[in-house]
Design brief:
alpha+beta, Tetrahydropterin Synthase, Chain A, 2 domains, four-stranded antiparallel sheet, 5 helices, 4 strands, 26% strand
Length: 152
């Protein structure tokens, strides 16, 4: 009888231990498989000059929205808005064709992917997930002067 009681106690303890180990293991798997919580963010207006032979032809004016990993944004003292705006400025400045007035288009998917890649590389983490165009305009130098002149 004592032996049977001892076996019953051991099997109960083994069962409890096994159940706890299984619960802990599946709990960790669920946490690591959790979807990333994203938050939508916006850049300030970015105004990029379009130059030809040292002369300003006009400006690309844009505002971007982007999604970022909210956990990484909250844990960081560096906010990604400035990095997204800077990467966008650099890409537009370096790649915008001189004949933008003729309707040559910037490949927006390429633009988005390059901005995401550049920002994440600079931040050292995969913070930014996607970049969306909120607004995009081209204003010629004459348009700028006309708008500035009428505002006075």
């Amino acid at each position: 009888m004592i032996l049977l009681s001892f076996v019953a106690c051991l099997s109960t303890l083994g069962g409890v231990y096994g159940a706890m180990a299984l619960k802990t293991h599946t709990g960790n798997a669920e946490k690591s498989g959790e979807p990333v919580k994203l938050q939508a963010m916006k850049t300030p207006m970015v105004s990029v000059p379009v130059l030809e032979d040292g002369q300003v032809l006009g400006y690309v004016v844009t505002r971007l929205q982007f999604t970022a990993d909210s956990t990484l944004v909250k844990a960081s003292s560096i906010q990604p808005e400035a990095f997204v705006a800077d990467e966008a400025f650099r890409y537009i400045y370096e790649t915008t064709p001189k004949d933008i007035k003729l309707g040559q288009k910037l490949a927006l998917r390429d633009f988005s992917a390059r901005v995401v890649s550049g920002v994440n590389q600079r931040l050292g983490r995969e913070v930014v997930k996607d970049v969306l165009v909120d607004s995009w305009s081209y204003l010629s130098k004459q348009d700028m002067m006309r708008n500035h002149g009428s505002g006075q």
